[in-house]
Amino acid sequence: MQKPRYSVFSIARNAMNYHKDWERAWRSPNPKAEYDAVIVGAGGHGLATAYYLAKNHKMTNIAVVEKGWLGGGNTGRNTTIIRSNYLQDPSIAIYELARSLYEDLSQELNYNIMFSPRGVLMLCQTQHELRAFQRTAHANRLAGLDCRMVSPAEVKEIVPIINDDPNCRYPILGAYYQPRGGTGRHDAVAWGYARGADDMGVDIIQNCEVIGIQRDGGKVVGLETTRGVIKTKKVGVVTAGHVTTVMDMAGVRMPIESQCLQALVSEPIKPVIDCVVMANTVHGYMSQSDKGELVIGGGTDPYNNYSQRGSFPALEHTINALIETFPIISRLRMLRQWGGIVDMTGDRSPIIGKTPVDGLFVNCGWGTGGFKAIPGSGWVFADTIANDRPHPIAEAFSMDRFTEGRFIDESVAAAVAH
Amino acid sequence: MLLVTCPVCNATGDETDFHFGGQAHVARPATANPEGITDEQQRDYLFARINPKGLHFERVRCDRGCGKWFHAARDTMTMEFKAFYGITELPPDDVIAQAKGGWAEYFAMRKKKQK
User: Which residues of B touch A403 (CB under 8 A)?
Assistant: First the structure.
C-alpha cells in the first residue's frame, strides 16, 4: 500500500487539480479483533514506537489506540525545542540518538518536519549556574557532543536583543551553546510518523479510549476500549500525563505526578531572534517560529493538575523573567496560551521498559522535555517491545532504579528547562 | 488564581500566599522502624505517589500567614477545594466518601487501624 511520495512535482500536479485529489495521510480503520502489539497513546512517542516497530522489527500487525485525536496532547503543546546537552551519560545517549535521528527525519519520513538546527543557548545568570554548565560541558565533551561555553560578548552577538546590562539582577555571565540543537514542527513529527506507520500497515485508531487492561496469570491478554475488546499479548503504554490512570488499570503504581506546564505565543513580528534561548535561573525560554510568533515557555504549576489549564502566577512568573531578559518584548501582545499535562518523575528522567506485568511495557516520565526525545524514545522502546528486553540505551531508565537508588538525576542539572 | 483558606489561622489568600507540599498523608516508615524497612518501602515513601484525576489530598503551608502546615482536599480536574483540615487530622467523612482508587484504599486502611 505504498503511498505516493510528497515532492515538488506532486505539489505541482495537485495544483493543476485544484488540490482536490490529495490522498489521506492515514486511514481511520476500525479495530481488528487481535493485534501482535498495541500502543496506547498516539502522541509523538507512541507513533514513533509504532513506526520503528514496523520498520526496524517488521511488526506490522499492530495498532495505536488514542483517546482523543492523533498528536493532540503534549506533542502539539510543547515549545518544540530539540537539544541533547544533558549531564548524565544515559540521558546524553538517548537524547543524542533522538537529535541525530531528527537531522534526516524529513527525508526518512518523506514529510517535512521543519527541523531547524538554529542553536540552543542556555544562559548562565549566576556563578553557580555558570559552574554547573561548565561541568555539563565537560561531561558532554567526553561524550563527543558538539557543544561549547560562550562568553557574554558572544551571547550578545548571537542574540542582539538580549539584556546585557552587567548591573541587572541576573546578569549574563556566559552561556552553554549547542549549535546543532534547535526546533522542529511538532505536529509534523506526529503526522509524519503516523503517515509512515500507516503506510506499513499499522492501524491508528483515534477516539478509542482504553478503559481496562485484561490480564491472565500476570500476563497481558487484551485491552478493553470504548470501541470494544482488542486481544493482544503486548501493550506499550505511552500516555504521558495520564500514564498513572492507565497503569492503575493493570494494578501497577507509577512513581509519577501529573502537573500542568504552560506555553504561549506572541503576535507575529519580524525576525528578532534566530536561536533558542533558555534562561533557567529566571525560569523562561523563548524562540521565534517561522510565522514570526515568539514561542515562550516556563515552569510547571506547583501542584497536581489534569485540567490542561495552568495557573496565572506560573504564567506571570515566566513573562516577568523573559521581559527582564529581553526588554524589547515588553509591549508585545500575546496571541494564544495553553497547558499540557506533564508526567513528572522524582529524578526528572523518563521511565522506559518492562513492568511487573508480563507483556506490559511503559514509556513515560518525559516530564517537561519529551518532544526532543521522540525519535530516540520510539527507537529504543520499539526494540524493547519487539525483543521483550530493554534496549541497551533504555536499560538505565528502568522503573526499578527508584528501588535501587540508581537515579538519573537531571532535575539539578537542567533546573526548570528540560 | 486559586483561593486557599488556612484552617489554622482562618486567613484566606491567593495560592501565591501558600506553599504546596505535595501529597498528603505520606508516612515515613523509617521513623517507626529504622532498621527493618525494605528498599520497596523506602521507594514508596520517597517516590510512589497517588496521582488521581479527580479528588486529591495534599499538604499546604500558610507561607505568609501563620506559617503552619495543613491539609487540603482538591479536585485536580476542576481545581475546586473540597476541604481544608489540620495537619494531624483526616478529611471530613463526606469528602472521604468521594475518594476513589488509591485514596479510597488508603482511607479504608486508616479507618480499619482506628478500630
Answer: 39-40, 43
